[in-house]
Design goal:
Blueprint (H helix, E strand, L loop, with lengths): L17 E3 L2 E6 L7 E5 L2 E6 L3 E3 L2 E12 L2 E11 L6 E7 L8 E6 L5 E2 L2 E2 L2 E6 L7 E3 L18 E8 L2 E7 L6 E7 L5 E9 L7 E10 L4
């Protein structure tokens, strides 16, 4: 899949970021409820409002660092308190800190309830270019079969590796044995923002998630 991305610089008057644990964090878009990220010994406790990460623009709270070139990163979602069936926590690769930015995200939901074509907790979502509609890669196993990628809190792991413009997403219940979720060819800027993301999907209520054990793997 070929995607052309255009990087956008952060506009200081629009984005107010705060540093924590070597990462920055800020609201993306203009959520009615402001989000936050509290540093703990092994990660962050994140609170977020926002109507969604979907369609042509997003509202969510983002904990991120800038990364250039190839990488392989993972994080554990230890707990997730949703505000809606479609509240989303995930590991995001984002081209710019603007609401309409191109991005790729391995999403996890709070439980395994059926959602559209998905029975399970995991889903890959992406926006090919700035301002276009998001798309999703659903699990191959569809309802009513048992979920192929179930939630297993406090041990729901997300992992994304980048090699050039090939992104490979994995899920795990222990952070050791990884199961391939999907691969996607998607040209993004060489330097991108990477880290945990959380959206409520309910403009009037906040969602909460605990992200732990962020890990950067070495390529062999």
């Amino acid at each position: 899949m070929t995607v052309q991305g255009t990087p956008n610089d952060c506009v200081e008057s629009e984005i107010t970021s705060k540093s924590t644990f070597g990462f920055d964090h800020c609201d993306i878009g203009t959520p009615h409820i402001s989000g936050s990220a509290k540093q703990v010994d092994s990660g962050w406790d994140v609170v977020a409002g926002g109507v969604d990460i979907w369609e042509t623009e997003d509202q969510f709270h983002f904990v991120f660092k800038m990364m250039t070139g190839d990488f392989d990163v993972a994080v554990r979602v230890a707990s997730f308190t949703p505000a809606h069936l479609y509240s989303k926590a995930g590991l995001m690769i984002r081209e710019a800190l603007t609401a309409e930015s191109a991005h790729l995200m391995l999403v996890v939901f709070a439980d395994d309830q059926p959602r559209n074509n998905n029975l399970g907790a995991y889903e890959m979502q992406f926006r090919k270019t700035e301002g276009v509609h998001c798309q999703a890669v659903y699990p191959a196993v569809l309802p009513p079969a048992p979920p192929e990628f179930p939630a297993s809190y406090p041990n729901t792991w997300l992992r994304i590796a980048r090699r050039d413009n090939l992104f490979t997403a994995f899920g795990s219940s222990d952070g050791k044995s990884w199961r391939l979720y999907a691969q996607l060819e998607m040209p993004l800027s060489e330097t991108v923002s990477v880290g945990p993301a959380l959206t409520s999907h309910n403009a009037e209520h906040e969602a909460m998630a605990s992200f732990r054990d962020y890990t950067e793997f070495n390529f062999k």
